[in-house]
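Figure-free illustration: sequence to structure, shown twice.
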Amino acid sequence: MSDKKVEIKIKYFSEDAERLRYIDGKSDWIDLRAAETVVLKAGDMSFIPLGVAMELPKGYEAHILPRSSAFKNYGILQPNSMGIVDNTYCGPDDQWRMPVYATRDAVIEKGERIAQFRIMENQPVLSFVESDLSGNVTRGGFGSTGRK
């Protein structure tokens, strides 16, 4: 991990929201909490507000994923697999949200940790050059590494 510190400007949408904090040594992912209580029925789709908006520096983006316990505890899936927040989504009303699909009835209480995020540098500018890749060894195609 780099020792470089990056400053992130953050707006909380509630005075009583628990403030985000970086837990050094445990994980570089940061938990996000439901900003309001959400009641879901099996089959419902919802965009759960996470109670924050951030101004990410140019060249950075946030990757948002469910916490590992989100499905076990609530039966929710994030249908877009991973949320990406780019640095242009930074206005005072640009609250982060987590899209969820409920596989069973669930109540997610305000303040419960449901998602996590990390800040990543944007991918460098790429240039694609056509090649037949004949100098490389073929591994056997998709799914060829076995089951065990």
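We now fold a second protein in the same way, so the two outputs can be compared directly.
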Amino acid sequence: MSLTGFTSTTFRVRYAETDQMGVVYYANYFIWFEVGRTDFCRQRGFAYRDMEEQDQLYIIVAEARCRYKAPAHYDDEVEVRTYLKDVRKRVLVFGYEIYRTATDELLAEGETVHVITNREGRPRPLPDKYRELLLTGAEET
């Protein structure tokens, strides 16, 4: 369930992301989740770097999962739809859906759970300014 609608990031599968059969290696989906997540934040008005430099806060991955539905192949155009599933005092949960754009076929879905920490790795509350930006912003596309 999305709290705010989703953002969309589209790109082509690179040859380096595939195996000998031209199928995307499973771990690359987690990299695509990160690409979607950083774009989500940018489209909401801030970058991870802002949190690190201005507030000395970090968004660390505490849990990640992916369910693979169909293979992506070299040169497919794929879309990562990223949305915010939950925001708590010190925790963010992002959801992801990856589609082949030519057919709108769902290739994978997943989520990542993040803890907000300081530089030493100690949990810290998410500042209101970031909470507001995450919960508002771009309309669902």
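Summary for the second example: The chain has three helices and five strands.
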